[in-house]
Amino acid sequence: MEIPKTLIEKLKSAKSIIFFTGAGISAESGIETFRGKGGLWNKMSAQELASFDGFMKNPDLVWEWYQYRRKIVRETNPNAGHKTIADFEKHFDEVTVVTQNVDNLHKRAGSSSILELHGNIERNYCMDCKTFYGVEKFLESEEVPKCEKCGGMIRPDVVWFGEVLPQDIFAEAERKAAESDICFIVGTSAVVYPAAYIPIAAKRGGSVLVEINIEPTEITNQTDYSIKGKSGEVLPEIFKMLKEIT
Ligand code: BJW
Ligand code: ZN
Q1: Is 118 a catalytic site residue?
Q2: Smallest CA separation from ligand 1 atom 10, residue
Q3: Rounded to two decimals, what is the model's pTM?
């Protein structure tokens, strides 16, 4: 793994950093990615499992799939990539994590400013009265539970295909991206929109784009630095080099 010295120099004078993260950052924790080798969408239908229509067609199947993934999330832990991102807060005035992940691992690693674009698998809400429920509430339910207040169907608080992202969170993410000095793009294929506009907003605002991924992606040719490697190895190395010169 080759970390360019000029990147470390740029980091030295940076004040505001954003990390735009995707499923790849959690791969080393044991959570499957969606695309690429071994990705979830290679063996399962995205349309059936991650869309409103899919849920309405077969609610219990979709619910069961989310319960299965929740169990995996609870059994895993943040890895060196998540932890290093949290450590960046010790060195920079402003560090924002903009994540497409729903797994809560950035929070568990200790990051304090996290914008979740696609929701959080550890929350549910009632489709009728919009009451929110924590993950513990229906942990043992094998079928879609009913709301305690109104009897409505409970669904995971995640953003499915065709659904609108939480608008205030997306707007805040765009603003932080445009104001950032450096934007790390970590472990994402950068094919899902509108989330993939975040690094573009950063670039338009003059930010330096740094990609960390085991493979080239849709955004690679727009980045200033593309570092090939696992995020759990590359991020700690960058942080180590940064500490050595500051
Ligand atoms: C490593 C590594 C290691 C591995 N270290 N790296 C054009 C413009 C705008 C929208 C669209 C458009 N064309 C189509 C659309 C619609 C659609 C979309 O973008 N589709 C594309 C796939 C084509 N977008 C939507 O539907 C969005 N909503 C929307 O557009 O609303 C507006 C609207 C509403 C109504 C009508 C019309 C418009 C919503 C998108 C919601 C995405 N939801 C999911 C599921 C979330 C819940 C759940 O988890 O179950 O979000 S899908 C899935 O993809 C998940 C992810 O957050 C998202 C992104 O995936 P990510 O994180 O990039 O993962 P992978 O697997 O793709 O990549 C992993 C990467 O890691 C790889 O590159 C590996 O190499 C790498 N890696 N190990 C470093 N150790
Ligand atoms: Zn309700």
Answers
A1: yes
A2: 193
A3: 0.97
**Domains of the chain, first to last:** 1-31+78-118+165-246 (3.40.50.1220), 32-75+121-158 (3.30.1600.10)
Residues 158/198, Cβ–Cβ less than 8 Å = no
Ligand 1 atom closest to Cα of residue 28:
80
CA of 183 to the centre of ligand 2 (A): 39
How far is the centre of ligand 1, averaged over its atoms, from the C-alpha of 152 (Å)? Answer: 28
Rounded to the nearest 10 degrees, what angle do helices 167-179 and 197-204 cross at? 40
d(CA 98, CA 189): 15
Q: How far is the CA of 53 from the centre of ligand 2 (A)?
A: 20
In 17-166, where does DSSP find H-type helix?
Answer: 24-27, 40-43, 46-49, 52-57, 59-75, 80-87, 105-109
* Regions of the chain with pLDDT less than 70: none
Q: Is 119 helix (H, G, I), strand (E, B) or coil?
A: strand
